[in-house]
Amino acid sequence: MHHSRVGFERGQGTRGSGVPQAAPPTAVVRPEVFEQARCARDLAGRVVLVGVPSPDMTVGLPAIGVFGRGGAITSSWYGDCRPSRDVPLLIDRYLQSRFPLDEFVSETIGLDDVEEALDDLRRGEVLRSVVVLDR
Q1: pTM to 2 decimal places
Q2: Do residue 74 and residue 86 come from a single domain?
Q3: How far is the C-alpha of 6 from the C-alpha of 64, rounded, in Å?
Q4: Which of 6, 98, 109, 121 has the fewest CB atoms within 10 Å, measured from its CB?
């Protein structure tokens, strides 16, 4: 699959060389998103999977593409954060308008909408739903 087929223009802002690190921003990792990130990375670039794939998801990976371009493919589980250190830091940055937390929320929902929101998440239609109890 070519990177332009999944909606990414290779090297956009990188003089055509690709990006040093590609982290597909989706809660549900899909093979085409993984392929897009893999194709968009520069030589020796890294792909970081930030969403949890379904247990049955597989991706085709030409070994020569990994060997010939170098780099790494890795994952990040909940951002690999240390809550005692990172949560206060993120709160401070958010309050200083230095961390765009609102951009990571797809929708706010009431408690009655949780089942539908979980279905949307499973289908990959939303990144994150936040339950607001006073709705």
Answers
A1: 0.47
A2: no
A3: 21
A4: 98
| Residues 73 and 14 both lie in one domain | yes
Strand pairing report for 41-49 and 129-131: unpaired
Give dist(CA 26, CA 45) in Å, integer. Answer: 19
Residue with tokens 């990177």: 3
Residues 90-102: tens digit of each pLDDT: 999 999 999 998 8
What whole-number distance in Å separates Cα of residue 3 and Cα of residue 128? 26
Closest by alpha carbon to 30, among 123, 129, 116, 118? 123
Q: Which amino acid is located at 55 in the chain?
A: P
Q: Are 56 and 86 in the same domain?
A: no
Q: Measured between alpha carbons, how far is 36 from 34 in angstroms, rounded to an integer?
A: 5
Q: What is the pLDDT of residues 41-68, one digit of tens each?
A: 888 888 888 777 788 888 888 888 778 8
Q: Any idea how long the chain is?
A: 135
Q: Token pair of 81, please?
A: 């954060």
Number of domains in the chain: 2
CA within 13 Å, CB half, 9: 5
For residue 109, give its domain range. Answer: 81-131
CATH of the domain at 52: 3.40.50.720
